[in-house]
Write a structure and sequence with these properties.
By secondary structure, this protein is an alpha+beta fold. The protein is built from 8 helices and 7 strands.
Length: about 190
């Protein structure tokens, strides 16, 4: 198994991981690229982002993505990433409810609360295919990221977890993340560095 910096040629693999691990619970259809446009693509190209992938015999099977400065990342995404995607995916075209939900995120992205970003300016996304789970890899990836961010003087990191994802909330709790606040669908958790 190899952990390395993500490259542009990893985009199809990380999009696939994001799509397959983020399928709607009700089994409804979702276009394969949409979720990746929101949650992974910008992290492989935006300045100041950190992206690593996990490669095993079957190929890229996981990733850890981080924006060191959430507000700067959000501004870059708004200016450079979203305009073309909004043009390609207008709100008023009929599509599946699952796709519409993601297209709405392209037009009105989730913005981290000021109360979270003030003390926890960095944020992360992590996804591993099932074949890589349960081996301590998620913990190892996050621990390495925390070491790097601490050395860079970043005071804290946060992430958003779906309210219905009790397993992930427990996992992050075991890694020292605490609940900071909630929205209608998301628990924001943070860890001081």
């Amino acid at each position: 198994m190899l952990i390395r910096a993500a490259r542009l040629d990893d985009l199809p693999a990380v999009y696939r991981i994001c799509h397959e691990t983020g399928l709607p619970q009700d089994g409804s259809a979702r276009s394969p690229e949409l979720l990746g446009h929101v949650y992974v693509g910008p992290y492989l190209v935006a300045p100041g982002a950190r992206a690593v992938v996990v490669v095993d015999d079957e190929g890229v099977g996981g990733y850890l993505l981080c924006a060191r400065d959430t507000r700067a990342h959000e501004a870059w995404v708004e200016q450079h990433w979203l305009p073309g995607l909004r043009a390609d995916h207008p709100l008023d075209i009929p599509r599946s409810p699952a796709d519409q939900e993601v297209v709405e995120l392209l037009h009105t992205p989730d913005i981290a609360p000021d109360s979270v970003v003030a003390d926890f300016p960095a944020h992360l996304h992590i996804d591993l295919f099932g074949r890589l789970q349960g081996q301590g890899l998620g913990r190892s990836l996050i621990d390495e990221l925390i070491t790097v961010l601490t050395e860079e003087g970043i005071p804290g990191i946060h992430l958003g977890v779906g309210l219905d994802n009790a397993g992930a909330i427990r996992f992050y709790g075991r890694l020292g993340f605490v609940e900071l606040t909630r929205s209608a669908s998301t628990v924001y958790m943070g860890r001081r560095l």
